[in-house]
Structure formats: structure tokens, C-alpha cells
Amino acid sequence: EIPNKPELVLKPSSPIVSLEYNPKDSHVLLGGCYNGQMAYWDTRKGCFPVEVSTVEVSHRDPVYGAVWLQSKTGTECFSASTDGQVLWWDIRKLSEPTEKLALDITRKGLLENALGAVTLEFEPTMPTKFMVGTEQGIVIACNRKAKNPTEKITCTYSGHHGPVYALARNPFYPKIFLTVGDWTARIWSEEIRESPIMWTKYHLPYLTDGCWSSQRPAVFFTTRVDLPPSLVLPCFPHGLMPHLSVLPPQVCDEPLSCLRLQDNGSVVGCGSKLGTVTVLEISSGFCTLQKNEKALVNAMFERETRREKVLEARHREMRLKERAK
């Protein structure tokens, strides 16, 4: 009720770089720290962590991704860091991780070859799969239930010139996912590994975050660092929204670094580089499902996937001809 006074301040031993509410218990929060440690809080028990992982078994770099798993106990989670590791945890016993994976795309399982993780994606309807966005611009798709560590990395998607700052599956079509990095936002189909199926033009300012609308399958939001900082709302299939022109709103006087959408899709919170949080209400046009929208969007994604498949096959053919020469 009082916008400039927090209800509770969480006090970690090292700055928090990722923080997630437990989907089964809104009093419990999981935090990844700048020094690589994992911590969890119970807001009923005050501002200090209930437990923190020991330094020796934690990440060696900041924990940029921390995600709760779907589990019967509601206590299991996993984390990813620029140290190149994904670690699984049970908050009832943070003395050591329950499982480890080095993000080595050569599949030798060597930590010295591992790519640094900056984003972590997990879709509860696909409990064995997860994806990691890396500093090197590569998205790594993984299967946790693979028999050995080398098979846990299933494939990679390369499309950005710098770190992948956002990685999110479409809530309506989970095989379609969004990545944000460098100056573009890109939409991928899980089936096409060589290139995205759609992408925005190269913006002059750097893009810093992005997420899908929870109400409309074709709408996504991005933040960027220019001044005045903007929230951009692109991506409409042709014919769906001819009457709406999309103008980036100025949010505050500081560069924007992150955003989160409320589940109902009508409120978005933006965080700035200097720590200001701005809450915006989104106009009903952007969060009201249009007639036939799901069918139109699905047709668009399928059409673009087919197009890329044809191009991929053609490229393969040309490479084989070159080799034959």
C-alpha cells in the first residue's frame, strides 16, 4: 500500500542476483548470490536466510539463474552460473548439490570447456527438459533424465552476438521460444536448430530483457537501455491488430534492465539499472485475446517453421556439393 516503503527487506550475506518465489508456498523464496552461494528465505521467519549453501560446494561465479522444480515436496530447485555449471538442490539440505552438469557443448563434461550461463528456463509441463542461455550467445537445450552427462546436452541454438539476457517458452506453444540478446529479440522453433524462425530488426540500443504475454500468444515485451528507456511491445501476426500502432512508452529516467509480467498479463514491473522499480498497467488491447488469434498465431509459427526447414535442407545440400567438389 505504501509504494516507497518495503514490507520486508531480505538480508543476504552476498548481493542477490536472482530471486524466485516458491510456486507451492509464497512465503518461501530462493536466491542466487553474487558470490555463488544459494540461499532461501521464509518470510514468516524474518529477513535473514533460513539456510545458505557452503562456499566449497556452491558456484564459483554469480548465480544468474535460480528456478524451482515441480516436485512433491516443493523443496527442489536448480541453479546456473557463469562458472559453467548447473547444480540441483534440495533446500532441506543445502550442504551439497544433489546433481551437477558442466555446460560443455563438446560433450566431454569438462568444466574448463563449459559456457557461462546467464539465463535459465524451465517449463513445468516439460519436467525433464530445460534450457540455458549463455554469455557466448548460444542457447543449450538439456534433458535432465538422460542416462549420462554427455547425453544431457541435447542440442544448441546459436543466434546472438553476446549474452542471452532472456529466454522464455511461449505459454501457448511451448515448442516456440523467445531469446533476447545484443540488439535483437528472436523467436525460435525447437525443431529448427540453425536459425530463428522470426526476429526483430536490429535496434540501436541494447536489449536487456524480454518475456511473453500470458494472455496473448503473439505478444511479447522487451526492455532496452536507451534514454529515455523504453518498453517495446512488438510481434503481431498480419491482420490481427491493424488498428493498434505500437509506441514504446517512456518508463522512467534510467536505463531499464529487467521486467516481469503479472500472471493475469495486465501489469508489468520494470527494474532500472539504478534500482528503481516501476509498475505499469498494460492497456486492455494488449492483454485481450482476439477472435481466432490462437489459430492465426499457430498457423504463422508453423508456416515460418516450414520455411526455415526448407532453407535448412537447401543449405545442407549446398554444403554437401561443396564438399564433393
Amount of helix = 10-25%
Shape: globular
Please report the first level of CATH classification, the CATH class of the largest domain: Mainly Beta
The name CATH uses for the topology of the largest domain is Methylamine Dehydrogenase, Chain H
Folded structure, characterized:
It is a single chain. The chain is mostly beta strands. It has two domains: 9-158, YVTN repeat-like/Quinoprotein amine dehydrogenase (Methylamine Dehydrogenase, Chain H, 7 Propeller), CATH 2.130.10; 207-324, no CATH class. The chain is built from three helices and 22 strands. It has helices at residues 149-152, 284-287, 293-324, and strands at residues 16-22, 25-33, 38-42, 51-52, 65-68, 76-80, 85-90, 99-102, 117-121, 129-134, 138-143, 153-158, 164-169, 176-181, 184-189, 198-199, 207-212, 220-224, 231-232, 256-261, 267-272, 277-281. The strands form six sheets. A four-stranded antiparallel sheet has the order 1-2-3-4, with no helix packed on it. Strands 5-6-7-8 form a four-stranded antiparallel sheet, with no helix packed on it. The protein has a four-stranded antiparallel sheet with strand order 9-10-11-12.
